[in-house]
Amino acid sequence: MDGRERELIDRLEKERGLDEDAYAELVAGRDEEATDFLAQKARKIADAVYGDAIYTRGLIEISSICKNNCLYCGIRRDNNLAERYRLTKEQILSCADEGYDLGFRTFVLQGGEDPFFSDEILCDIIDDIKKSHPDCAVTLSMGERSFESYRALHDAGADRYLLRHETADAEHYAMLHPADMSFEKRMQCLRDLREIGYQVGCGFMVGSPGQTFQTLAKDLAFIRDFKPEMCGIGPFIPHHNTPFKDEKQGTLELTLFLLSVIRLTHPQVLLPATTALGTIHPQGREKGILAGANVVMPNLSPVEVRKKYELYDNKICTGEESAQCRGCLDNRMRAIGYRLVVDRGDAKYGTI
Ligand code: SAM
Ligand code: FES
Predict the structure, then answer these.
(1) What does the pLDDT look like over 200-235, one tens digit per residue?
(2) Which atom of ligand 1 is nearest to 162's Cα?
(3) Given strand 295-296, what is the order of strands in its sheet?
């Protein structure tokens, strides 16, 4: 780490952000020493806000059917080898009940953009989950919808919405998506969600094809300004039946560095150590926590469908029972001095 890199890290810490060029310089100039130095600072801030508590979200993958054709994604419409399924309302509710007994207080309903899940159907499911478990948060991750749809789902009780922006650079966005998807629409959705009153999550893949230090700097500046309640980042991992099958996977090292930068930029952000991070390295999630993350998202989906929700190759936790998955993560967190808590896991403002 040279003097300039150190100066940028100190400025990032003091001012809770850098300008775009400085972010690009910081990321481009990193080495192992800078990565460790930054991780220590990030972990100290996460400890000051969240202590040794790690929040959990029970992820229920409700549909592998998708009308979109994102170039990176294994459940894209044109992947005719993908196995498609859709959970019934009863299956979703029983995943939530099981999750509740295991100690989850947030359920994330995630899926492809499956037209079957109309507002009426989703509202009914959200309403039932909230009635059975009023002390729980419901998070949705169902892609782009209209303002009215987002509002109806919020009125039905949904608390949070995850919609990764994927990249804050319009040209880069167009390299990752077909022409019928637009960067402006994606960003508008995030603004709509915020206006309606959701706790909002954005995020991006690390190492996606076409990503540069400049596009990453735009992502970081976007996070600095938008201040999402949640931010999901994980490595891009190629899927063998997508147009990006021969592209390089994102690295553990850059993902960890960016987790730390995000924690320093936005101390209170809810930042998961993602399944994708656990997929590219056996201790990926532990390393993610040690770099500043404070959330894990074990899988609550029925075991028989897990392999079918294949966004990328070699995804972990597809053979485990939900209880095993939570137990496994509990052990992993204890081994590094942290603990899973039974808590809705809202962002904590005002502590530092
Ligand atoms: N359909 C919803 C949406 O688009 O937000 C939710 C499901 S989508 C599959 C969830 C996230 O998975 C995407 O936002 C993307 O960042 C991530 N993802 C998809 N394909 C991936 C890949 N090959 N490697 C890593 N992450 C991937
Ligand atoms: Fe799923 Fe370890 S977290 S088995």
Answers:
(1) 999 999 999 999 999 999 999 999 999 999 999 999
(2) 5
(3) 295-296, 53-56, 339-340
CA nearest neighbour of 59 among 341, 301, 309: 301
Q: Is the CB of 158 under 6 A from ligand 1?
A: no
Q: Is 53 a residue whose pLDDT tops 90?
A: yes
Residue 234 half-sphere exposure toward CB, CA atoms < 13 A? 22
pLDDT score of 351 more than 90: no
The backbone torsions φ and ψ at residue 200, rounded to the nearest 5 degrees and listed phi first, read -110, 140
pLDDT number for residue 350: 81
144 lines ligand 1 (CB under 6 A): no
325 in contact with ligand 2, CB cutoff 6 A: yes
| pLDDT number for residue 352 | 77
Strands 199-206 and 230-235: parallel
Round to whole Å and give the CA distance between 103 and 118. 29
User: What predicted TM-score, i.e. pTM, was given to this entire model?
Assistant: 0.98
% residues pLDDT > 90 (the chain): 98
CB atoms within 10 A of CB 296: 28
Angle between helices 32-50 and 3-15 (to 10 degrees): 20
Dist. CA 218 → ligand 2 center (Å):
33
Among 24, 100, 51, CA closest to 333: 51
164 ligand 1 Cβ < 6 A: yes
Query: What residue owns the CA closest to ligand 2's atom 4?
Result: 325
